[in-house]
Design goal:
The complex is a heterodimer of chains A (510) and B (235). Helix content of chain A is 74%, strand content 0%. With 510 residues, chain A is an all-alpha fold. Chain B has 235 residues and is of the alpha/beta class. In chain B, α5 (167-183) links the parallel β7 and β8 (187-192). Classes of the chains: A mainly alpha (510), B alpha/beta (235). Chains A and B meet through α16 and α17 of A and β4 and β6 of B.
Chain lengths: 510, 235
């Protein structure tokens, strides 16, 4: 029996090292919290309330996002108009929009002194408040309605044009014959994905929630650690949160394996059923307004004050850029090495971070480093490391298919030329992967730039990142400065993404 | 065949799912052997086994007296051209050919001259800086052929690399193969589904049908008096 002469030609140890790092940051930190958790007392009434609130707000946020997305996606699927392409691109942006920027943008419209309340007072109605359950849901819908719309739009555009033609000749009801079955297949998936995203909500709840009636588990972990310094309780809550996320991730993974990242959303399917134009126009206008007005307010409010931003804020911005760059580098290296490694272990390691959350990983790392160093001293490296790990599934999603395609197309040629492992990476893989690598780096950088999670557990004033500085300004009611910081944060996030993505495209050839 | 046979399959068997390919034969040196037979009969599988891309269920592959069954593809005395993806699209023609000398492309000045000469030899003088996208299909085939020539490995396997070319260009390339590779004394094994290709340049024909590769027969003889399996294929 002959030994197989065919071997994977990519180097393997970097993939193994990446896998070890991810396992350490997920299962390792979980072990740390499980070890320290105070199992005896169990969950208090307040903790149960946090669990309940987390589940209910995630459920409502996901449901509202998906229901509202239906008319918008349908309108986008069947109407061609100027700015449609821009709007669809914009719908992809909230993924890299820092959550805290979204929150301050919503405050500018729906907050105590926001535009909405000005109008309410003007027409003699009582002021509305954005804080609490409905504020958290509002922010989650703002952040996830675009995602839901894109997922559903993808569903709509996956219905072959011929089906619409056939339905037209039969004079059949398109809604019942084509659209309803498609929605039944796609809407639950969109719901689950958003549900999981909202489960790990921290920054939103930190600012808009709080109190016994609007605290997520993530927020409760933060409060237990930061305010009460109750390590045992924080650890117990972290275990609960990991359980929630892991269960939800298992659900999502089963469906996400089939879903594809949206490409080709730029076409419109020709249809023959007559739909009222006004309905579609209203849906699109409301959605666009809901997304654009708050962000526009940030630009209007923040721009005049950018020049007044104090030195600490600029320093924070510098630190954020540093952390984001480090995180992006690390994330792309890990994703690439895992993709080259291939196989089931790499795939498992690649989705594992979806079950982890910023605060759970953070708590674990806090417990691990606390006996040895002052947590503040390692705040920035820990943040970069955590961000890189949490962004890994998305980076891998963009990189892995390209690596597989390159191996399929050129692996045998390289083997027959006797190319060595690192030569293969240098001469073939890297030059041919510039686009997905750039995109993944941009994604990781932007996600890290806007992250307000693990840093809150570790940082003192001297380690403040830009989102944290912004949060401090908001806490001090310096809303103009906070808006300016938000504008800066938004601009830097988009800039980082653009530079990386562009860097991958320019001069790239297939 | 006796003394001149160099590449030998000794009781070779490859299993792929339900399909089994067996071959017990030798390929003559300094000659072109065509593998002919219906699609799915195992022609490409045999080439993959010779090149080292699929592992054997049993049997050996021998180069002269040396067993090469367990050698990785790059360390066998064998070059192969596939149906497609024979060139790296992001590398220039010079670089693509240069891989024959240094797979890491750290070429010495005299090696660069060698590469340029190899390109000139297949009629591509001055085209070294172009990338495959800037070359015609025929020119791309010539670049790949230049790399095979420069690599200097004794056995060359052709898995229908010219199938996508038009009939005229394909014949031109086959003649070039005969002219260059045979002159260099290589052992050439080519897959083809077109009897005309075999008649044009092959010295011997190996009939592959129903998972069995039969020993080579001189081309004239086999087409004058085709066995039943070849008759069925030729129709």
């Amino acid at each position: 029996m002959a030994r197989s002469p065919v071997a994977i030609i990519a180097p393997r140890w970097p993939g193994g090292a990446s896998a070890a790092l991810v396992l350490l940051l997920t299962f390792g930190t979980l072990a740390a919290v499980a070890w320290q958790a105070e199992w005896v007392g169990g969950l208090s009434t307040g903790d149960w309330a946090a669990v309940r609130f987390t589940l209910v707000q995630a459920f409502v946020s996901a449901a509202v996002s998906v229901v509202l997305a239906v008319p918008v996606a349908r309108a986008l699927a069947r109407r061609q108009f100027r700015g449609r392409g821009i709007l669809i691109t914009l719908l992809g942006a909230p993924f890299i929009l820092p959550v805290i920027v979204a929150v301050i943008a919503l405050l500018a419209v729906f907050g105590r002194n926001g535009v909405l309340n000005d109008v309410m007072v003007w027409i003699g109605l009582p002021r509305v408040t954005i804080y609490g359950f409905h504020g958290v849901v509002l922010a989650h819908v703002f952040l996830n309605l675009p995602l839901a719309t894109r997922l559903l739009l993808q569903g709509w555009l996956s219905i072959p044009a011929e089906r619409f033609r056939l339905a037209a000749t039969l004079n059949a009801d398109v809604r019942r014959l084509l659209e309803w079955p498609m929605l039944r297949a796609t809407a639950p998936n969109a719901f689950l994905v958003i549900f999981v995203i909202c489960l790990t909500s921290f920054a939103t709840a930190l600012i808009l929630g709080g109190g016994p009636r609007a605290t997520t588990v993530e927020l409760a972990i933060y409060q237990a650690l930061r305010f009460d310094f109750d390590l045992g309780r924080a650890a117990l809550l972290a275990c609960v949160q990991f359980g929630l996320c892991a269960a939800a991730t298992v659900l999502v993974w089963r469906i996400a394996a089939r879903a594809e990242m949206g490409a080709g959303l730029d076409r419109v399917v020709q249809r023959w059923d007559r739909a009222p134009l006004a309905l579609d126009a209203i849906a699109i206008a409301l959605c666009a307004g809901f997304l654009i007005v708050p962000l526009g307010m940030i630009v209007l409010r923040g721009a005049p004050h950018v020049a007044d931003l104090t030195a600490p804020v600029w320093w924070a911005a510098g630190r954020s850029l540093l952390v984001a760059s480090a995180s992006a580098c690390l994330c792309v290296c890990m994703a690439l090495s895992l993709a080259l490694w291939g196989g089931r272990v790499a795939a498992f390691v690649g989705v594992l971070p979806l079950a982890a959350s910023s605060l759970v990983v953070g708590t674990g790392l806090f417990l691990i480093v606390y006996p040895f160093v002052r947590p503040a001293e390692v705040a920035l490296p820990v943040t970069a490391l955590t961000n890189a790990t949490l962004a890994l599934p998305f980076a891998l999603h963009s990189i892995a298919p390209s690596v597989a395609a390159i191996q399929d197309d050129f692996g045998r040629l390289a083997m027959s030329l006797n190319m060595r492992r690192w030569t293969w990476v240098r001469l073939v893989v890297l030059p041919r992967m510039r686009r997905p690598l750039g995109f993944a780096a941009g994604l990781a950088a932007a996600l890290s730039m806007g992250d307000l999670g693990v840093i809150t557990l570790f940082a003192g004033n001297a380690q403040e990142t830009l989102p944290l500085a912004m949060y401090r300004l908001m806490g001090a009611y310096q809303m103009d400065q906070a808006a300016a910081a938000a504008l800066l944060l938004l601009a830097l996030s988009l800039l980082l993404f653009w530079i990386c993505d562009r860097g991958g495209r320019v001069g790239a050839e297939m | 065949m006796g003394d001149v046979s160099v590449l030998r399959c000794d009781g070779l068997q490859v299993q792929q799912g339900d399909f089994t390919l067996s071959a017990d034969l030798a390929f003559a040196n300094g000659a072109i052997t065509a593998l002919i037979g219906p699609s799915g009969a195992g022609k490409s599988t045999l080439l993959s086994a010779l090149a080292g891309f699929v592992s054997l269920k049993s049997g050996r592959v021998l180069w002269g007296d040396t067993e090469i069954t367990a050698l990785p593809p790059g360390e066998r005395p064998i070059s192969i051209l596939f149906q497609d993806n024979n060139l790296f699209p992001h590398l220039t023609a010079l670089q693509n050919v240069g891989l024959a000398l240094r797979p890491d492309l750290r070429l010495l000045p005299e090696q660069k001259d060698q590469v340029a000469r190899a390109l000139a030899d297949v009629g591509l003088t001055g085209m070294g800086a172009r990338k495959p996208a800037a070359l015609s299909g025929g020119q791309q085939s010539r670049v790949a052929l230049a790399r095979v020539l420069l690599a200097g490995r004794e056995v060359v396997l052709l898995d229908e690399p010219f199938a996508a070319l038009g009939p005229g260009l394909k014949e031109e390339m086959l003649d070039l193969v005969r002219d260059k590779l045979l002159k260099a004394g290589r052992c050439v094994v080519m897959v083809t589904h077109d009897p005309a290709d075999a008649k044009r340049i092959a010295d011997n024909v190996v009939l592959v049908s129903d998972g069995v590769a039969l020993p080579p027969v001189p081309t004239d003889a086999i087409f004058e008096n085709p066995p039943p399996a070849l008759q069925a294929y030729l129709g």
